[in-house]
Write a sequence for this structure.
């Protein structure tokens, strides 16, 4: 433990020195992503060519967009398991309603966006007002939505939207010098990511993080929790809708498109160092998590790993990556969080000293009657919930 | 903090939530009986009751184990593949020979126990969230299954198949076994030290640790028991179908359904509150709803829609109560209730880093 914490600063020196303000303490995912991309490029040099690389980004775009949506829900302290079903539902809606009629594309697109918003609204309202855990609400929504979609289509692939609509997912701007083609998916991904970064920096975005970190203090500081929570679910459903639009073009119409996306998205977000349980994480890291996951699959493909072992390797990598960030980066974050209010110089005492001192001081404030720290029990226990639930 | 008061309070809470689940179950049965009567069938006929109880047993085994894990504020998503794996191991080892049954049982339970041990160690020692840890181990087992088994495999001897096929009157043996396991787990939770520690760690890990509990052990034990009870479900499925099958778990969607049943049974997903009997009630609600739908010949896809709505609606009925009940335990510990004004909230916020720092191990 101590050896690890002493190694950390020296090993991560360059990283921290380069962009301490830009890269969060949980920047492990970027390191992982770079390592994976380099490994792929070594195995298959053509991957590094711009035109191939842009194809890779195009393939990741739907996953990354779903992960960005999931990020807002998770950082707000909830889960959204219904995303995969929303993707499936939107794909099927596009297939069945647009058909070969190009002129229907825009109205149906509006309908899909509206439908996505309504799903998110329903999820959010049930979580906020009926106090049902989001895990259960979105699980129910996942079953209900998937069942409804399959009932509608009879369980088989139906419909095929007009080519103009599919162009969003598979086409792009042609004739660009270096990369040859700039797929629309990449453009959309960049726009969504930029919007997400902008949104996360706005007061509203910060409120989401505050709510996920500590609902009690967020409420005390005047947050309309129900609206903040509901809007995160709407964001995630809308992002699933966008991913669905891209997937219609890329993968076609089938009731199995989008299956498992909720777990992929959660995995990507957690790989990006976002803490399950809320309050910690950066949206760009979540998107990078999606890229890292997809790069991992690509690497396994190029390395000739049998497809049946892909899952096993994925499982092992997830556990290792999260364990890595949970054990080393958490210690570092704590150490840094200490720097602000208390004194100790970074690095030296915290890990050893903390466990003994803090409980003692906590007990002291409880005993002394005149300290205004009486409400401490609730926020600190809430904190503990976050720790136990979200100790990723 | 004395041990008597939290125990008493918890016992009251447990009775409470079980009662609510019981009422919900009675309501569901009443509605189901009426619906079944409208299509001219008898809900309470022995055959129908046997169907419901049979439907309860597999999910029951999984959900009992899941209860333990959820009480520790963790989750187990790997049960899906543990079920399939144990059915395959057992069926392969039995190979049609009754003499191999004990060995096969020991092997599949042992392997499941090891998987649970790995889950528990990853959650407690590597500090990986239970959701991610078990998702990861589940994927690893899935990779193993997909690579080594192409389809159904093994052969279960007739003696073992009887477990899944016979019954005492309208009550199948499998359900009796499931209820016996539930009694054992109930005794474990209410009578043993580790059982109490599971509640303590799930309720508040920091407080549990500061009260001198080794917080890792209950979590590991819960994960081991959860995997083993999932293995029992796999064994039961193997005895019913006569073979092991790598898709048993995925067919039933047991990972999420078991969690839903646990929550339906009044156990808090955040941990520390809940009971096995509530879970059995939750499983029974599922079984009744499924049974009514199959008697009424509902479209299989619509069944999922109804299931989803029932899950959310049933939890919504008593979720707000559970949230309310969580509060008193925390300020009951001696601290006066907080005054919700901005002025007092501020020191609370500044006190938070100190408590967070206490979490460094």
């Amino acid at each position: 433990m101590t050896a690890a914490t002493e190694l950390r600063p020296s090993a991560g020196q360059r990283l921290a020195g380069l962009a301490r303000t830009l890269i969060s303490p949980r920047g492990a995912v970027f390191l992982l992503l770079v390592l994976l991309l380099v490994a792929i490029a070594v195995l298959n040099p053509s991957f590094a060519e711009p035109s191939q690389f842009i194809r890779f980004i195009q393939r990741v775009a739907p996953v990354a967009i779903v992960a960005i949506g999931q990020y807002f829900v998770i950082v707000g302290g909830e889960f959204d398991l219904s995303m995969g079903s929303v993707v499936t539902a939107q794909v099927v809606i596009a297939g069945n309603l647009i058909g070969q009629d190009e002129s229907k594309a825009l109205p149906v697109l509006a309908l899909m966006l509206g439908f996505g918003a309504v799903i998110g609204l329903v999820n959010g309202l049930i979580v906020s007002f009926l106090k049902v855990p989001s895990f259960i609400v979105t699980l129910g929504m996942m079953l209900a939505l998937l069942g409804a979609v399959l009932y509608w289509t009879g369980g088989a692939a139906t419909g095929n939207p007009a080519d103009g609509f599919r162009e969003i997912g598979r086409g792009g701007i042609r004739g660009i010098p270096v990369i040859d083609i700039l797929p629309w998916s990449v453009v959309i991904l960049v726009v969504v990511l930029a919007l997400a970064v902008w949104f996360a920096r706005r007061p509203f975005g910060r409120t989401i993080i505050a709510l996920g970190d500590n609902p009690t203090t967020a409420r005390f500081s005047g947050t309309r929790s129900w609206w903040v929570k509901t809007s995160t679910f709407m964001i995630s459903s809308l992002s699933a809708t966008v991913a669905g639009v891209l997937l219609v073009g890329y993968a076609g119409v089938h009731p199995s498109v989008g299956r498992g996306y909720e777990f992929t998205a959660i995995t990507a977000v957690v790989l990006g160092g976002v803490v399950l349980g809320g309050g910690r994480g950066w949206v760009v890291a979540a998107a990078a998590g999606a890229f890292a996951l997809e790069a991992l699959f690509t690497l396994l493909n190029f390395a000739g790993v049998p497809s049946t072992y892909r899952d096993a390797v994925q499982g092992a990598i997830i556990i290792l990556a999260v364990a890595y960030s949970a054990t080393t980066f958490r210690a570092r974050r704590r150490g840094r969080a200490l720097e602000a209010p208390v004194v100790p110089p970074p690095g030296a005492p915290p890990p050893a000293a903390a466990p003994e001192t803090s409980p003692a001081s906590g007990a002291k404030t409880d005993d002394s009657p005149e300290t205004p720290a009486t409400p401490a029990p609730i926020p600190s226990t809430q904190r503990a919930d976050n720790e136990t639930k979200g100790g990723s | 903090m004395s041990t008597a008061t939290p125990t008493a309070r918890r016992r009251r809470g447990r009775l409470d939530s079980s009662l609510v689940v019981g009422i919900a179950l009675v309501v569901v049965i009443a509605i189901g009986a009426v619906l079944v009567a409208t299509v001219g069938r008898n809900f309470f006929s022995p055959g129908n009751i046997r169907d419901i109880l049979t439907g309860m047993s597999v999910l029951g085994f999984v959900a009992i184990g899941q209860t333990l894990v959820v009480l520790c504020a963790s989750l187990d998503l790997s049960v899906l593949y543990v079920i399939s794996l144990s059915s395959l191991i057992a069926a392969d080892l039995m190979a049609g020979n009754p003499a191999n049954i004990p060995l096969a049982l020991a092997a599949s339970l042992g392997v499941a126990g090891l998987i649970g041990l790995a889950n528990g160690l990853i959650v407690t020692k590597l500090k990986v969230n239970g959701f991610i840890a078990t998702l990861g181990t589940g994927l690893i087992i899935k990779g193993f299954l997909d690579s080594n088994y192409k389809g159904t495999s093994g052969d279960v001897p007739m003696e073992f198949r009887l477990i899944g096929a016979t019954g005492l009157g309208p009550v199948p043996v499998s359900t009796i076994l499931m209820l016996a396991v539930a009694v054992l787990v109930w005794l474990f939770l209410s009578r043993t030290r580790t059982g109490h520690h599971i509640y303590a760690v799930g309720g508040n890990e920091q407080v549990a640790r500061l009260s001198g509990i080794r917080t890792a052990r209950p979590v590991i034990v819960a994960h081991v028991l959860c995997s083993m009870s999932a293995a029992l479900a796999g064994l039961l499925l193997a005895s019913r179908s006569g073979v092991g099958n790598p898709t048993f778990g995925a067919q039933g969607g047991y990972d999420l359904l078991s969690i839903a049943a646990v929550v339906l049974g009044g156990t808090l997903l955040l941990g520390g509150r809940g009971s096995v009997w509530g879970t059995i009630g939750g499983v029974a609600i599922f079984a009744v709803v499924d049974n009514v739908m199959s008697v009424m010949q509902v479209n299989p896809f619509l069944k999922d829609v109804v299931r989803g709505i029932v899950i959310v609606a049933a939890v919504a009925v008593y979720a707000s109560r559970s949230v309310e009940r969580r509060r008193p335990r925390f300020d009951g510990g001696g601290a006066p209730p907080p005054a919700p004004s901005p002025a007092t909230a501020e020191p609370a916020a500044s006190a938070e880093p100190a408590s967070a720092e206490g979490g460094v191990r």
Q: What stands out?
A: Chain A touches chain B through 87 residues (CB under 8 Å). DSSP finds 17 helices and two strands in chain A. The radius of gyration of chain A is 23 Å.
